[in-house]
Amino acid sequence: MGCLLAVIFVGALALAGAGFAVHLLWIVAAVFFVFWVAGYAFGRGHRRADRRSRH
Question: Residue 18: which region, alpha, beta or left (left: phi > 0; alpha: psi -120 to 50)?
């Protein structure tokens, strides 16, 4: 019985750790997405300004 509880406890810890890691990865992905969108927007505006100044 004690061995079964230990296995269940280790399994619960592994799943909790995996859930935390996945949650953390979602946060990191969201931050990178925001920076990517901002970089795309600022880069596009910069290219438009270059085009206007050349003409």
Answer: alpha
